[in-house]
Known about the structure:
single chain, alpha/beta, six-stranded parallel beta sheet, 48% helix
Amino acid sequence: MFVLGLTGSIGMGKSTAAALLRRLGLPVHDADAAVHRLLAAGGAAVSPVLAAFPDVAASDGGIDRRALGRQVFRDGTALKRLEAILHPLVRAEALRFLARQQRLGAAVVILDIPLLYETGGEALCDAVIVVTAPAWLQAQRVLRRPGMTPETFAAIKAKQLPDAEKRRRADVLVQTGLGKGDTLRRLRRIARVAAGCEGEAWPPRSGLQPLLAKTLASGGQGPGGQGPDGQAAGSKREA
């Protein structure tokens, strides 16, 4: 099974790329959707988040994400506390997704992770796709979002690895500024190539196996709340 990571900075077209990959029939694990499940009523993150942030309970028994966001957005210490809770749980969901797709016989799967490089998620991938676009187009897309301001946009970008660094570390770059049709053609070509490759990231081998086993057994709490670090192998090219 060949594992493709998908990432990109805010406004670069990652959500559109993920939707197009689903359209191509590829299984996609959405890390953002996993966070929403974890913070919803009955989610595994509700109790630890409330223990750390008692004032963010929602009336339905889950977490009020807006209230939580207000507490952590400009408080680096609070954000790190939240990430220490969420990142291992999201990683555990990704591992379960990979194990399930392996059992189902999937040839290529996608890990859609906004903070892939920031959290060491590339260690789970055979190759990483980075979606990118010109800075002017990125700003245009983001500032069209309801409630978004230039100040908020700048603060979000400051918390993410710069686009230039993501592009440098990528195995494959996908430019998203030429329309969905062009992006779909690029992604179809990547999927076709990946289907002909033998993956090495999953099932896990050697030193990665004990860490993944511990993460799954503990429901997400790997050593220090972090996943294995590393970088996907392969030669970078633009699709």
